[in-house]
Amino acid sequence: MRFEASQQMKLGQQMKLAPRMIQSMEILQMPLTELAERIEQELESNPTLELLEIDPEENDQPRESTDVDGEIVIDESARDDFARLDDFEQTNPDASENEFSSSRLDELERLDGFHQPDRALSRLAGERDAKSEAMAATPARSASLTDQLLAQWNLVEVSEDLRPLGEWIIRHLDDDGYLRSSFAEIADKTPESFREKYSDADWELALQAVQLFLEPAGVAARDARECLLLQLDALIEADEGDSPGFDPGIVAIARRIVSEHFDDIMANRLPRIAERTGLELDEIKSGLDLLRRLSLAPARRLLENAEPPITPDAIVEYDEDSDRYFAYLNDWRIPNLQINREYARMSRDRTVPKRDRDFIKTNLSNAQWLLEAIEQRRSTLLRVIDVILDEQRDFFDFGPEALKPLPMTQVAEQLGVHVATVSRAVADKYIQTPRGIVPLRGFFTGGLQTDTGEEMSYDAVKAALREIIDNEDKSKPLSDEALVKELKARGIEIARRTVAKYRDQLSIPTARLRKQY
After folding, report:
1. What is the C-alpha to C-alpha distance for residues 83 and 508, in angstroms, rounded to an integer?
2. Among 23, 111, 130, 323, whose CB has the most other CB atoms within 10 angstroms?
3. pLDDT tens readout for residues 242-292
4. pTM of the prediction?
């Protein structure tokens, strides 16, 4: 075998993204809550970035989409840099990321309200200031489900032999509170000496203790049937049957049908339950009403505050005078930022040690780029929403059934940006409209043509399907074939399997399960 070394020339194109551009795309894609967290991190780490004090009355005024000039000063050269993001290019890969141009410094120096040097120097020394105080009350992360249940278990009076078994069981519960693992699977993860010490009967006894003593009732159930039974037993034991809504007789009926006829309940075979138990349909329906008040995911109650509520990134309102919808960003929670002017001056002061000046310049560059990225995000998001308001006017007037097909490529062409920019701008974001809070990405969908030649989005078809099912005779619910005919009567022609797919996506059960007796 012979090895040779040779030189070759190769012509090709290669796409490179500067870290700054990647950061800008990330900020564009961030929803409002993540952006707020990112800004807080920057305020903590960058001493040249500070909060801007503004008049509260001015801050309460909504900023419309046509007014994108806010409290951040952006020069034209910066706007050119961000325009290149749409082409995914890096025009000057050798440029220093830490460069903070003299033109930007001059622009900052022209502004009013310079801070005193002693404050700037104290910040470099790590002294606490207003921005750190503004973030001092950050809420602590909530305890996990396992931690909460273990804390309860530590207060339970059980034998020392059962305590470690209960801990192992708790650590194997899923987020809904179910024990999906068998005793053998749990024991396999324990030390060998531990496995030899305990039998399946010991594990079963520990499980019963966990189910009995831990709250909420239903935790550590092995399936849905056991989960409901544990909650019903808790109602009986707590003697809550004396309170309105928990009649002891109804609780007993509910427990009986769950214990003996759970499969029939799941299949909505109420007449069969009545035939086999001798109960009246009204009694069975009363038991089912009680079951609906129980939870099939009891542990979620302990984690109900773990998921934050949806915060819309923008708000859409209707102006009767102009007969138009307008949008403004819901960014009042985002702190108003500015660059510390004294730091900008110090970065060119030759009396300041070079190491300190380099440190200041680096942070000034990072701060300026962050402000520009936030402003670019704001401008792009509002421009995209403006197009949506024009193209989807019927949705805001008439509701989801009037939603039209709107490809992202069409919006990108109208705005003169890359389609990936539009995709990032709408990712994981919601807007508050007169029709409720809706995901921004939901306005971009394919569609079909009706018999009249009108375009209709797939989401509009789903909305029509839901409306038909909501208004059907519940004693004689429509089959999928009948739903196809109802949609065709509205000029919407789709296959039965498509109806079944949309019904599943809407979490609507089959006709047999929708039937009410």
Report:
1. 45
2. 23
3. 444 578 889 999 999 999 999 999 999 999 999 999 999 999 999 999 999
4. 0.59
